[in-house]
Amino acid sequence: MKTMSQHIVIAGKLSVLVVAMFGFGYLMVPIYNVLCDITGLNGKTSSVAAVAPQTSGEKSERRVIVEFVAVVNSSAAWTFEPVQRSMEVEPGKTYNASYNVKNLSSQPAVGQAVPSVAPSAAAKYFNKIECFCFTRQEFEANGSKEMPLVFFIEEDLPRSIDRVTLSYTYFDTGEKPVPASDS
Amino acid sequence: MSTATTEHHDHHDDHGPAYGWKRWLFTTNHKDIGTLYLLFSLVMFFIGGGMALIIRAELWQPGLQIVDPLFFNSMTTMHALVMIFGVVMPAFVGLANWMIPMMIGGPDMALPRLNNWSFWIMPFAFLLLLSTLFMEGGGPAGGWTLYAPLSLQGGDSFAFVIFSIHFMGISSVMGSINIVATIFNMRAPGMTLMKMPLFVWTWLITAYLLIAVIPVLAGAVTMLLTDRYFGTSFFSAAGGGDPVMYQHIFWFFGHPEVYILILPAFGIMSSIIPTFARKPLFGYASMVYATASIAFLSFIVWAHHMFTVGMPLAGEMFFMFATMMISVPTGVKVFNWMATMWRGSMTFETPMLFAIGFLVMFTIGGLSGLMLAITPADIQYHDTYFVVAHFHYVLVPGAIYSIMAATYYWIPKWTGNMYDEKLGKIHFWISTIFLNVLFFPMHFVGLAGMPRRIPDYSLQFADWNMVASIGAFGFGFSQLIFAYVVIKCMKGGEKATDEVWEGADGLEWTVASPAPYHTFETPPTIK
Ligand code: HEM
Ligand SMILES: [Cu+2]
């Protein structure tokens, strides 16, 4: 049998653990993001522009099919479609593709595309030199745009992968475009 | 309370409980608080059960008959939250309050005032949770796991749901801190750790699990809250977040949580089975180590709930094998209980019937768990009724039966009266028959592809669903027998002896029946 102060000591130590575990819950957020960046887990691709590849110059017979998918987040009033459904690409070479977006609402709106690559093992070999997904786009009421994408697939892409799907989900950010003239 | 106590601090005089409602509101006595927790849990059991019957009534036939789909979904969500946080956890805490001080020869819990708070937060939290059903937009309907983004798309009652979960969490964490402090500081001299009854051991480990994972749940739901109302985007891809991350954080809490719901049950089994087999528990030390390794492993298997989110192959393999590894220590326990019964002179009073029912049917649930752990198979089974069958077999004849077994086993000590043995046995048999009628067919419809959390279903599942609904109503109403037996026993009955059970071993059986308001004010001597 011990005294009250000894109970308080244990309770104090355990409370520190409680606070630490609450913090750990939040720490899982950066841990998860770092893991995804390193491994491409979850199909997350880098959101920073890549530099154009240095090709070895050797001719390669290898071809990979890239499929383009577009999804509009359910709560947004847009049409969003790839201009090309799929492409046959040679790893190491740079290609251009594009997507069409239209704002269906009668209000100006701001949209943002979020990319994802499947299979997730391919994500870290999929590089975008230029992508509309790096920034937000502002639209007039009923405005539309064709948005460009420049990408290449690294030559190190595992041999087992011969088909890569690039999917974009389009979100309404809920913001209002900033008028370009005044302010 | 009386001035006499303040005058000589270390010497409690023989004052009994205060009178009237104030006794219950202000009590710091571990037995009173244990009783409050247990009665609260019993009330919530019928509320959660009522919700289950609404679900099964709607599923009686294909098509939408009784409730609208949104309400149906909030029933499945609420049923789970009530049963997990309002029934199983408080019942275990109630048993811990009643039994742990008596089992270790201590006079009370280490932090009695904290104990009072832990309990009284609970009714408040559940009032808040249940009130959301009457708010505009209805209660939470996105499943008890509150997956983002779905859970963020419901009505504004969402904030109340989050707050009530915070309060439940605070209550559990305070209760757990108290239990750890009690076990470390209040043991009678000579009660070494390796002499503690297994119920105390399993609760010690459970308390650590709770302290480790409840704050993670609190963090996850706080992120939901800020995502919804304060413009953060932890789980929204538009703002750079990721909804799959919610599942990782949730299940990092969620899988240890399912062990929180079963480890104390293992402790109860380890008390009851030796008593009625009249043999000491087989493999005490291995039971302790098995419990500890289950607790440890429970932290590294969470993604078996997420085999279908598209993890890399290596991840799926890791979580598959880690999950299967948990069945090893679990198997050790089941074998130890069987070895305890082997060649014992067994009798089959109600607590033992429930214990044996636990052993058989919990194992069925463990086996379906093992099937779900096989990644390629789980891709078929995930989110079907097969999963529903799995967790109901581990939770109903598992956790719930252990609580009922514990009630029948210790209620003579609590009230001083024997319960009605005949009714107890009837309760066991009726429950067990209907329980299997209720849950076994879920395996069939699940394997055939019936999705879970759906108010309507394809015609091919109709027959087995009707069977399950018959089982549900049978099981539900047979619990009225349990309530009747408990109330009857509280009111009176044949007087219980101090030892109560012929083969019982443990300090709780050395005090009078009913247990006096204060026990072990002077520590007992431990052999
Ligand atoms: C042998 C031990 C066990 C194994 C191998 C196991 C395995 C699994 C797996 C793989 C799942 C995920 C199924 C899916 O969603 O596709 C699952 C779900 C579940 N298990 Fe177990 N389990 C075991 C024991 C337990 C115990 C002891 C409990 C609780 C007392 C439990 C409660 C649950 C619950 C509540 C779910 C469903 C959670 C949800 O999605 O709502 N399991 N189990
Ligand atoms: Cu699990």
Provide a concise account of the structure shown.
By secondary structure, chain A is α+β, with helices and mostly antiparallel strands.
Structural descriptors:
heterodimer, A: 183 residues, alpha+beta, Ctag/Cox11 (Pfam 04442), 2 domains, 5-stranded mixed sheet, 4-stranded antiparallel sheet, 9 strands, 20% helix, 37% strand, B: 527 residues, mainly alpha, 0% strand, globular, binds protoporphyrin IX containing FE, binds copper (II) ion
Principal-axes geometry of chain B comes out as globular
Spatial gap, N to C terminus of chain B = 35 Å
The interface involving the most residues is between: A-B, 37 and 42 residues
Strand content of chain A: 35-45%
| Ligands bound to this protein structure | protoporphyrin IX containing FE, copper (II) ion
Q: Provide the CATH superfamily of the largest domain in chain A.
A: Ctag/Cox11
* Mean of all residue-level pLDDT scores of chain B: 93
The class by helix and strand makeup of chain A works out as: alpha+beta
Radius of gyration of chain B, whole Å:
23 Å
* Biggest pleated sheet of chain A: 5 strands, mixed
What are the low-pLDDT stretches of chain B, counting only 5+ consecutive residues below 50? 1-13
Give a topology summary.
The complex is a heterodimer of chains A (183) and B (527).
Chain A: H1 4-39, E1 64-72, E2 78-82, E3 86-89, E4 94-103, E5 109-118, E6 126-131, E7 137-139, E8 144-153, E9 163-172
Parallel strand pairs in A: 1-9
Antiparallel strand pairs in A: 1-3, 2-4, 4-8, 5-7, 5-9, 6-8
Chain B: H1 3-7, H2 21-26, H3 30-58, H4 69-104, H5 112-131, H6 158-185, H7 198-229, H8 243-260, H9 263-277, H10 284-297, H11 313-341, H12 350-373, H13 375-381, H14 385-415, H15 421-447, H16 462-491
Helix pairs in contact in B: 3-4, 3-5, 3-16, 4-6, 4-14, 5-6, 6-7, 7-8, 7-9, 7-10, 9-11, 9-12, 9-14, 10-11, 11-12, 12-14, 12-15, 14-15, 14-16, 15-16
The complex binds protoporphyrin IX containing FE (HEM) and copper (II) ion (CU).
